[in-house]
Amino acid sequence: LFVDQPLGPGQPVALNGDQAHYLFSVMRLSRGAAVLLFNGRDGEWRAVVAEAGKRAGILTCETQTAPLRLPPDLWLLFAPIKKARTDFIVEKAAEMGAARILPVQTRYTNADRIRQDRLQAHAVEAAEQCGGTFVPEVAELQPLDRLLDRWPAERRILWCDEHQAGQPVTLATLTALPAGPWAILIGPEGGFAAPEQARLAGLPQVVQASLGPRILRADTAAVAALTLWQIAQGD
Ligand code: SAM
Q1: Ligand 1 within 6 A of 208 CB?
Q2: Ribosomal RNA small subunit methyltransferase E PUA-like domain: from which residue to which, for each copy (predicted)?
């Protein structure tokens, strides 16, 4: 269970209404039952139920069961699409171990705002589901141009570019990617506009990549790119 509170030996953890409902009404836990907790910072902890109420409760942390496992330093930049598909991208990126998820607004991005809190909650659920101890941050929607204006010199960008489709992508090419911080960039359904393509192509940090011979939908492309990167980096 994810709790946004410090975890440590003997540390009391207060549950909110939803958490109490889930543990005591849905899971039917009672006093003395053990629960595994994580907060994205302190690893995983075994805690026991000290007080169980209908809409509140207290757990007491006992021992750490796993240290914090940080994912590789990989960001996912993607242009938000329809709500359900955007949710899917965030969920899968969190499962696949992206360290940060950055929705970006491009010329052909249909969404002009996102529910950042809802997407962050999806990232938490995904981390819970796959037994992670880390939750990636989902950033607010920001213009791609502005993000590139202050892009860190050392972070490379794997630009998934459908115009490269059909170019051979081999594991050998990907395993030759230099180590270090990376970002994967996935465009919107309409692809990148010509000025965006020109800007990306001129950046020294950018590596253009094909995801195979077919034009994939953006959500499929995000999962394919994360998978290939993970295989290549072995992380
Ligand atoms: N509007 C474009 C078109 O019809 O040619 C398609 C855009 S595609 C649906 C959305 C995004 O997925 C692209 O901007 C790219 O980042 C990624 N993508 C899809 N297929 C790809 C491929 N075969 N290779 C690399 N990137 C791909």
Answers
A1: no
A2: 15-56
DSSP three-state, residue 147: helix
Q: How many domains does the chain have?
A: 2
User: What's the rounded Cα separation, in Å, for the pair 222 and 77?
Assistant: 9
- Report yes or no on 7 lying in a domain: no
Per residue in 155-192, pLDDT (tens digit) is 999 999 988 777 766 666 777 777 889 999 999 999 99
Say whether pLDDT at 61 is over 70: yes
CB-ligand 1 contact for 163 (6 Å cutoff): no
Q: Ligand 1 pocket: which of 160, 174, 196, 206 to mutate (most atoms <8 Å of CB)?
A: 160
Domain identity same for 139 and 40 = no
**pTM of the model as a whole:** 0.90
Let me know whether 56 and 82 are in one domain.
Answer: no
* Domain-embedded: residue 171: yes
The string of DSSP letters for 56-88 reads: -EEEEEEEEEE---PPPSEEEEE---SHHHHHH
Query: Is 2 within a domain?
Result: no
DSSP 8-state symbol, 133: S
pLDDT tens, residue by residue, 101-133:
999 999 999 788 899 999 999 999 999 888 889
Please give the average per-residue pLDDT across 184-201, as a whole number: 96
Instruction: Specify the residue with its C-alpha closest to ligand 1, atom 18.
Output: 162
